[in-house]
Amino acid sequence: MSASVTIVVPVYNEGDNIKKTLAELDAKATVDAETWLVYDSDEDSTLAPARELEGKTRIPFRLVKNKYGRGALNAIKTGLEDAKGELVVVTMADLCDPPEVINDMVAAAEREKADIVCASRYMKGGQQIGGPRFKGFLSHTAGMLLHWFARLPTHDPTNSFKLYRKSFLDLVKIESTGGFELGLELVVKAHLAGRRIVEVPTTWRDRVAGKSNFKLWKWLPNYMHWFLRAFVKSWKPIVTVSLFVAPVALFFACVALYAWDAPWWDDFQTTLMYLGGGFPERLLHIADFHNEHRLVIPRLVFEVFDLYPGFFPFLACTVFGDIILLGYVFALGVLFWRKGLLLYFIPFVWLFLDLGNCENTLWTLTSIQSHAVLLFSFASMLAFTRRSSTRYLALSIFFAVCSTLTSASGIGVWPALLIAAFLDGKGFGGLAAVAVSAIVVVVPYMHGFHEATVAHVEYSQWTLLGMVDFTLCLLGNLAPIAPLARLLGAISCGLLVVILLNFRKFARDPVFWFLLYLLSVVAAGGLCRSTLAGAGLFYRLEIIAISIFCCECYLIAQIVHGTRIERTLRLFMLAIIPVAIAANIFAIYMGAPTLRERKAEIEGGLRVWPEQRDKLVHFNPVEADRIMQAYVNRKFGGTLPKQDKRQNKGVEGK
Description:
This protein is α/β, with parallel strands linked by helices. The chain folds into two domains: 5-234, Alpha-Beta Complex (Spore Coat Polysaccharide Biosynthesis Protein SpsA, Chain A), CATH 3.90.550.10; 259-602, no CATH class. The chain has 24 helices and eleven strands. Strands 3-2-1-4-7-5-8 form a seven-stranded mixed sheet, sandwiched between helices. Strand 10 and strand 11 form a beta hairpin. Helix 8 packs parallel to helix 22 (564-607). It is elongated and about 110 Å long.
């Protein structure tokens, strides 16, 4: 019948100690046990004196040859794998570990039903006497950090003096490659698996005979691996959630602080002038051009918000647009999560919700227009690749129509859909449905386009160099300066080449077709705006560049999956996370003073209108007056109501 406890003692030339060690175990370990002396080679000095005691000890022992090769790790590994007892204790032959503590460890294992019992030098009642001070300092510090912050239920996880339940050992694959870090590995794995770990106090004394085989500097990297793994795995859920929640909270805090409840620039024309007419007559003009855009859906949103009594709630409308942005980011994140690529998405959350994107997040018109067109286009591609059915094809076309009626950039969804329908095996019926829908929507949309105010389109000044420069600047719009943006744009182009070479792998992937849509927007911008210096670096276009890099990262991660490059890419994305966080915080630091001043000026001008018309930001003051007067007459039946005098004084003081 097997003994209930197997005591594993790795030995290496312990000829001077072994008789005393076995005698101490006999005298002080009172449990039903068997001792295994695991040695490396037949020339080990431990063997001869040990054989002299065979059959003469109370606790029987056997000599077991290390089956994995030389070294303490392999000796312990051999003992743990082949031990016959229900409980396995690892202790050293130098008597640094007091044998009587084995009794306490076995009692604790049976009482607590524990899988591991740690003999702890650093808990209450424990002690360390002698030994290298630096080694002791490192061990104590590591134990405290792991106990406090990684929540390991022991103060001394690095001590090799431990008891293990054999049923637990049989389920664990040992990964350690050298040294005594095996004990730390097993504690970390047991903790992460939710296994029961307890500790009992022990007093460790430095050896008095022989020489220690502990090689601190050689084995320190092995200990660090498991030290860091304990932290990463223990905190992974909390850290991951924090890295997603923090940018959202910071983003809406910035919106609350710096968004203004007043019209600004194009808001006069797209909101106030449109709403200045009577209802329902103004619905006849809902598809009128604003510059090169027909803003049908944004104007319908304005109609809903105009139901609010009093002055039009610009801030509420802006926040609604920012919620659309959050929905767009969430939809992308779900796809990353489903592919197991959530790590790759974390930097992009911080970039999407960056204050550098302020023209889209703090401005009523673009908060609706820029975010909704992206969400509709992404939804269209998602529905298109969802399933080969008429219902999902119809849903895809519906979202494409919504995208087009949100902004002129939504027209770009149709070329992407047509190519997808042609290459994705939808058949002639699917291709015909997309083509007819494109004609029915785009042709009326473009009717009268020559009469629209398209300020930046100068057909006679097109140059190939200008279009290339615009494209590179737009693709690299993550950077605020042109030279760096062009470099990032070139990198983006290189990634696109790799993705296109692997096209067949992504034929059913909505992100690939959404990327194609984004590229069509870039191409349209290159045709229409390339003659305007720096147009590719407009703040409002930053979200296009971020979206393109996000899609490229998603697709490249799938290309390199299972290759040697994957590990490098994951490390690179880990390094990018703090860079993205720093960029977000830096944008707040740099942009906050300007935005605070602008908010005070705009809202201040609105509060004292019409006495101080110059405070209202508009390129045409006369037109601004006309729009404002028409709106105020309709809303208030005369002039804008005066605000509280204390508010006015506060604004004027700013």
